[in-house]
Specification:
This protein has 149 residues and is α+β, with helices and mostly antiparallel strands. The protein contains four helices and five strands. It is 34% helix and 24% strand. It has a five-stranded mixed sheet, sandwiched between helices. A hairpin with a 4-residue loop joins strand 2 and strand 3.
Length: 149
């Protein structure tokens, strides 16, 4: 299967919002197609994230990843948060996630970033195999804390 990785544009919103909605459902959120499209539209038009699409030769979306810019004060460099990565069921097991991750790494390289940062659940067995296989190292030197209102 031919898969091309490219940056999303505003023209991709209808098809991308469907995938994004499925991604949110996968993580236990309620379906909200309209809100998904609005959220993605804002990220794209305000240039607040980089969204990479995996597209088949017949122009179907087979996955996406979304990166958010961060900065490291100690490194005095940009970092990218690989926040979202999703490949729908029919396309899984075909190496699409790895292609999306490699393209995300290229964005980090092209923007002279220090690297990519990501978080995944301890129960995500697929992700916890995928990320080390693509060069990510499990951080042992720091604790991850989260404040939620």
């Amino acid at each position: 299967m031919e898969i091309n990785i490219r940056k999303a544009t505003i023209n991709d919103l209808p098809q991308l919002a469907v995938l994004f909605n499925l991604y949110r459902i996968f993580y236990g959120k309620e379906s909200d197609q309209d809100a998904a499209e609005k959220f993605l539209s804002e990220r794209i038009t305000k240039l607040e994230s980089e969204i990479l699409l995996a597209e088949t030769g017949d122009n179907h979306l087979a996955g996406f990843t979304q990166l958010y810019p961060l900065f490291s004060s100690t490194r005095m460099q940009r970092l990218w948060l690989l926040n979202d990565l999703f490949v729908p069921e029919p396309y899984r097991g075909k190496g699409i996630s790895k292609k999306l991750i490699e393209s995300a790494k290229n964005i980090a390289i092209d923007t002279n970033a220090a690297g990519l940062l990501l978080e995944t659940a301890k129960t995500n067995t697929v992700g916890n195999k995928l990320y080390p296989a693509t060069g990510f190292k499990l951080e042992q030197k720091s604790n991850f804390y989260f404040w939620e209102k």
